[in-house]
């Protein structure tokens, strides 16, 4: 075993510990980088000397030849990634739905002691007071004021609910642009990775960037991710990822090719938002996602459901309540008390308090006021979404508010549960992939000591060579 081999061992040790130190420094530098996975240099002992052979020197045993950094490994658990993405889609869906319902509650000012139901009750109570034989001019003026307050409440709710639906349509348009950018960035990373891997490189940082983008995509859609393995010198190495929307099955990314994603007007001219504006659908590589072919799971699904179902249903309920109220109150009052046809344009048609519950010029007659007040508990047929429901004005109003409260609470609970599970899975991911500065500092000291020892080995061998070159053969001079 020559001194040259000793220098080679020391050189290899220096290079291996240096690579470990550089990788540790890279970890520390990216301790707070989103999506970064901790890296580790895998050290392996090199082949010993001499190699087994029938012609070797026959010396006893083999002498080691040092160490080499065989690879730089990215510490990441693929199973946890699958779990995380499977739950993250639920976070996106439930966040969108809870956001919509919470905003509907704000519009109706419910739950509150001054909300929509309170305004309705105040209107009915004003008629109860007029139905008393002693009701005078100020009491009848109160009926008009309460009627105007109710009409204005209907007008505001109708306007704001339609604006909310329009806002969710705008969000879908915005997400279409974000999705298009995401899938194209993933396809670009697939291309970069594909150009490096066949040449023996393992682009860990590119893998991290791609996984972070796939995580973001998984919040918007329920996706299938397939990693294509590449055989490099007998080893399987990750290459491109192919991504599909699960239901309906649509290709998002295939190798270096990304689907074109855009928002476009609904095909049917009659398919409008409640305010008459254009309703937008998603076009993914020629496949249209709309109410008839909506995605299952993810933020996009939550936005579409909220726009087309949740918000739309409350617009229809409020309008149905207003239109029935106009019809029934006017019929019982004889002379039109309300003007308009629904929540959008309901108003009070009477301005003179003497015209309130005035039966054939007999202001003292309270039969009309009793008839109008009785409507609060009269069974009426309400038609919402093609379904007929027979109930009273009071019960229908209460059902709107209670249903909204129950749906909002359910959506909030689902959102919080999904967020909690996602955080737990992410904590498990971080326990493997996350960077601990304390641990990295400990590793740095370890690698520094090993590097110093390897450098000391070079010094010792240098001294040995000096003795051989300059100290031998001078005896007796």
UniProtKB/TrEMBL annotation:
Its main location: other. The keyword Secreted applies. Keywords: Bacterial flagellum, Cell projection, Cilium, Coiled coil, Flagellum, Secreted. It comes from the Bacteria. It is found in: Bacterial flagellum; Secreted. GO terms for molecular function: structural molecule activity. Residues 101-337 form the Flagellar hook-associated protein FlgK helical domain. InterPro entries: Flag_bb_rod_N, Flg_bb/hook_C_dom, FlgK, FlgK_helical. One of its GO terms (cellular component) is extracellular region. Residues 7-36 form the Flagellar basal body rod protein N-terminal domain. Residues 431-470 form the Flagellar basal-body/hook protein C-terminal domain. One of its GO terms (biological process) is bacterial-type flagellum assembly. Residues 147-174 form a coiled coil. NCBIfam families: flgK_ends. Belongs to the flagella basal body rod proteins family. This is Flagellar hook-associated protein 1. It comes from Aneurinibacillus migulanus (Bacillus migulanus).
